[in-house]
Protein 1
Amino acid sequence: MSRRVLVVDDAIFMRTMISDILKKGDFEVCGEGATGAEAVEQYKKLKPDLVIMDIIMPDMGGIEAVKAIMELDPNARILMCSAMGQQALVVEAIQAGARDFVVKPFQPSRVLEAAQRALK
Amino acid sequence: MDTSKYRDLFVSETREHLANLNRSLLALEKSPGDTALVNEIFRSVHTVKGMAASIGQDMIAEVSHRAEDLLDRVRKRQAPAGPDQLEAVFAFVDFLEGAVSLVALGKAPEAELADVSRALLARFEGLAAAAAAQSASAEPAPAAGAEYDFSRIIPLRQPDSVVFKIRILLEKDIPLKSARAFLMMRSLETAGKIAYTVPERFDIEAERFDRGFTIIFVTGLRDEKAIVDLVACSEVEDVEIREIADEDRDQSLESKTIGAFVQIAQERPKDVKVSLSRLDRLMNMVGELVVWKERLRQLSAGSGNPMLADGVDEVARIVGELQHEVLASRLVAMAEVFDRFPRVVRDAAKALGKQIGFEVRGRELEMDRSILQQLAEPLVHLLRNAVDHGIETPDEREAAGKPRAGAIVVTAAKLKEQALVTVADDGRGMDVAAIRAKAVEKGLMTAEQAAALGDGQAIELTTRPGFSTAARVTEVSGRGVGMDVVKSKIAALGGQLAIDSAAGRGCTVTLTIPLSLSIIHTLLVSADQMTYAMPLTQVKETINVQPGAVRTLQGAPVLLYRDRAIPLFHLARVLGRGGGEGELAGPAVVVESQGAELALVIDRMLGQQEIVVKPMTAMVKQSKLFSGVTISREGKPMLILDVNNLAA
């Protein structure tokens, strides 16, 4: 059975790219979001196996969204997307409960590997 | 494995250990019961062995291994720290020194040191056999010196907890390494406590590590597999887990060999090694900046544009700071060279059956490292001379009413922009009569002339090329190299040498050397439309030669200067250029060359300027008349005169 993933990023380009990568692995993209607030809302509704979420987004950033989701579901599995140079933010996201992170520009194999590990 | 990139690291690291070994061995010789020193020596040898093995230097590794065995027995009190053992380790240190120098040159030490290596191995074997014969009665003492810092582990331990060493290697060139490490540590902390990490956590979080780090983890989990699952995440190349048992407190050093280089790269976040050639290149570029800064200043002053002038001023300020920082980064403490001396004196004294108390002062004085490197050899020579020719044998000293042990003191002090380095002994002093006799014998002067020489002048003779009074050839100071060689080396560094000797009371050699060669004050002069830089340290006086003050002595012009007549030349003629045919008059510079004064007529004085000495091209180097080359404010190359060789 393929695992259900929620993809959250404010750029459609990035969402599309992540979705394409995930579809090549054994994943199903069950929903998408463009802000942290949408991520929390969608999580409640969809109960996905995994969330892949950007750190910096308008209207509730990724870190706050991680905190909110972890509050809803302490076992939530969240994978952060970050750009180079965002080390401090990544550390903050991990402290908030994110399982792992991938760094842009994405290498498909890395995204899939991280997604698989996060679901273990 | 590609070992070439590790070679320099191996060489520099091993040299640090060599300095440490020499220091510790000398201290151990004085207090043979000091276990801390034995441990120190043991650790150095051990580390060298690990490094050598890692880059395929098998011979060094093997000999080091045997030396380590011997030290291990001493450490465990299965063998004494006696003269035999110490001599063997000293011999090992010498071997290592030679081998490392060969490695540094890219040569295989096996080619030249195979015999030495075999002899050393035989020596260690003999000592091992002797220890084995004795060990039946000896009681082993607990050994000290462990790899792990148990003081940070023990407080975290619970009755059923296990301690693991987790070594993590991240993939090459991954971004956000610290966050990755943080993720792994955080995951581990859900199941136990991290006692400490190598490098320290603070350094890991600041990305001061290459791609490997080690975590010492105290946990209730007994299963290594569970721990691997905890740290498993993307971008990790390898995880190595090893349980640390209590026995590791004593003998876990073996595992340290693994990844010795990774640790070296990680454990020194504050200091980095920079090659001298890179510093030289930096210095050259700063030198060019300084010159162009001056050029820009002139251009901006001529332009009448105040905004440009402001900008140039700011650039000038920054260039000044940059110059200061680069110069400072070239400085190293005299200790780097001085710390080898106790060993030199000890060995020489031992070979000659002399007793010597040796003292070093001013090892913290800082000096340009290229100068210091070149100073080492002449200083060693002076020390050997002091031991060999200066200090008498204990019996001779006693007969002369002196303490049986002689004294040699090396000092370094700062005097303006110069280092004053002295080598003083309380030995017999220079034998002035022997020097006079030798001068006559060598045909340098007649017996009458020699007798007329003052003591000071006679002593000066020893610095003439080829002059040496050593009656016998000793192993220590060798043949044919004397004060003359020392003097010329010091002169090449832009320094001076003075000898002060008192019969029966000792001899002091004083060297004055610039602390920094790189930027010098010069007087710019022109001759035949060429501009030359003369180091101000070589200029005695600038004068204006009146035609009436010039005389002719044996067909050559001389100048009446003070109460003397000194040779007078035109600089352009001395340098083999045209011009200066007219009267020898006008501006001139009085310089001292090889102990004699002479005056050089020039076309014009162009003022003083700070210049940066640049490495010379091979062509200029062939001429002894120039010591270097620099770039003028106009951006043209300019030669630096070396008046020391003008007299000839």
Protein 2
Amino acid sequence: MKRLLVVLGAVCLVVLLLGAMHDLAPASVELHAAVATNLTASGVEHPVTAVLLNFRGYDTLLEIAVLLLALIVILAIGMDATISAEATVDVRPLVNPVLQTLAKLVVPLMILVAVYLLWAGSFRPGGAFQAGAVLAAAAVLLHLAELLPSWQSPGVKLRLGLAGGFLIFLAVGAVSLMQGALLEYPLEQAGALILLIESGLTVSLGLILAGLFLLLSRDDGETS
Amino acid sequence: MSLEFAFDLLLALAMVWSAWRSLYATRLDRAIVMFIAFGLLMALAWTRLLAPDIGLAEAAIGAGLTGALLLDAYGALQRKKI
Amino acid sequence: MTGGLLFASVGVILFAMGVAGVLLLGHLLRRILAFNIMGSGTFLVLVALAQRNGIADPVPQAMVLTGIVVAVAATALALALARRLYVLTGKLELSQDDEE
């Protein structure tokens, strides 16, 4: 009964939305035109980066805050599980040496790709998010090859890296708030400020995304 | 019907089908692998929608990282069941 | 029918499939999958509908880029909670008693 109702409801939703989309009038505000006219004032040449870090900067600020929050919650959830589990010997089989060698070869290249993506973000597709994702993938690869030290208790440097992107962003926001409006950069420094924020974001994003995976998979050998 | 539209249509069908399989495949591991395939098709769709930025992010995060997270959870589940 | 409208329709279908999946599937991992498909559908509608005239619009694209990263954080959080539930109760399904 419930199944039938839900399927019926979903089908009705699809039909209604498709009908509504078909009759939708053209947008009254041309956002892409507004972005294009203001692009010269943003400090970067790629429109998506300009929207992300200049026109709608506070969205990105809140986004990195949400990510940090998610990581902290996961850290808190996992905490007593690892404490209660007695330190067991790792039951996983020995890591393939081919995988380790491959990881050692590939990870520097991945870091290079991440830096390229970060740099490319100011004038073509790319940017902090993609670069951070590549960094995270590199860290996950190192973790799978067991070349990465455990994250059992994050040290000061790691914590600083995790929170750094958010803190840099927040500091820039605070300074700009003192000089005028929140996250409204002065024209001549806009490019440099965006690059600074993006660099911090890349490192933090890479660490946080990798941390999400590493923290979740750390309790592997916990139960027998 | 132009060739481009035919490709879009094929891509759309593949996306709906892979999403369907990832929801209702009988085995969970297959469902997760279908979800990763779905993420890659999404990345393709983003490039068709003139959004290469999202395509890059989707391929790396949507398909790669989410898939790794889900597979890892599935693996941990299987290990604990034994 | 343009490519934008086609992908927006796909987004609607994916969203409805995801909603049905979240409501009907019992297994928590499957629910998380359905939730992700729901999100993907929303992102598709957001971008594809905004550029149904064929011109790239950077504003929804940037919003969706943010959304994808937040979605993976939400997925990781959901997985952490599900795994914690499994460690505590040995089950990966929510109890059905209060649902009927």
